[in-house]
Amino acid sequence: EPEVIVELGTHKGTSFFTFCQAIKDNRFQTKIYAVDTWCGEEHAGFYTEEVYESVVKIRIQYYSSVNSELIRKTFDDAVNDFEDKSIDILHIDGFHTYEAVRHDYNTWECKVKDDGVIIFHDIFVPVDEVRSDFGVYLFWEEIRKKYKFIEFFHSYGLGVLFKGSDLYDELINSNRNLQMIYTTNLEDMKNQKIRDVLEIKESTQAELSNAQVELSNAQAELSNTQAELSNTQAE
Asked: Tell me, what's the pLDDT at 202?
């Protein structure tokens, strides 16, 4: 029986397609579901049908070999599509108020296997960027006390909760190393982008310098031509 991943809140598909890529690269038989209305809400913003159409297009173009399904429903409506203890990994990334994330967790937790994993996005949003109604970090502080977990601080944070914690002791014990690896990878990507920008800037400056030299040469040739023309006219 294939493993099952369910993502609550997909939007443009960044994390969904990350899951898909991992499944594709490793040739897993995993079935992955994306649950979203693709209409938006106050935190993600409201958007047009183009976002959903883009997700559909990418899924078909790049991940046709992956056993995936887009469920266009509210989370509360979609929960009835899954049997209790049928989900291996649940990714909660919906409306970000404390009440909403707690409700999503309480509604869907029974659908996750006893040895399953529950992931929460945006658990470390900087305090100065937190909206007054943003509460994922508050719920994470509560729920992390009940289970073993690992957490990542970059990109607004990711909390990974383990229901069957004994199965994941080795992974949990390597939490610090994982944090360093992924944070370093992220910094490397940022630094590479900076290097790319600098290379483009240097290349542009070199091209500008060459153009200026060519312009100077052309002006010199023009001056010489004008001088020759003046000498001819004088003769």
From this structure: 66
